[in-house]
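Below is how a single chain appears once it has passed through the pipeline. First comes the sequence as given, then the structure the pipeline wrote out for it. We keep one example in the README because the format questions we get most often are answered faster by looking than by reading.
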Amino acid sequence: MNAQLPPLQPAASHDLRRIPESLLTGFTRRDLGKGCLLATPASARNQVFVVQSGRLRVYLLGENRELSLSFLEPGDIYTTHTPTYVEAVAPSTIYLIDIADFARKLASDPSISPTMMRVLGKLLSNAVHLIEDLAFREVPARLARFLLGLVDRRGMPDDRGWLVPLDLGMEDIASLLGTTRQTVSSLINQWEREGLIERRGRRSLCVFSRDALARLCHDSVGQPTESSRRPG
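Resulting structure:
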């Protein structure tokens, strides 16, 4: 019998999602240390989990590289039964339930369905954007589109532009964009020198010119990247 579950911690201020209290009935709590691998494509046990706190990365692993598909944050729901790897990139707390038990909950409580659809839609959108970026955009255009997305979703008006939070580190951003940490850092430094952006501490930056980023975002559209030109 499961112990009584504590309430979910409030989501970050930019994220107003709420999980129905009835959702966690029957779930078991698990604490994950940074670097803990929760699931792999070969995982034998099929479970659904809800993220209470921390951050988990969903990614694909090839012979020579990793491709991040999404980062799961408080309030997100996912499953271990996918051809992806799921790793805690920060100390995290999750709640798990066997997929058969969750299917019965889903049938009896339709309020869960919108949350599931939102997370699955987010993962699909991220995967499509990643494929499109790798095929048609060079790294500067990928980074510009990433920053534009932050402005559109979470940008706060500033005297000189838009202030956006950077919850992800350079390594995480590079993984999402299919490039290296050094490349992302170099571009950020270059754009800061050119007056497009300005770092505000370690976890935020100010975007001075949204139009300039938009031009960078579209510069490489429609032109195959170097990797896509190589013969198979």
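DSSP finds seven helices and twelve strands in the chain.

See the next section for the split statistics.
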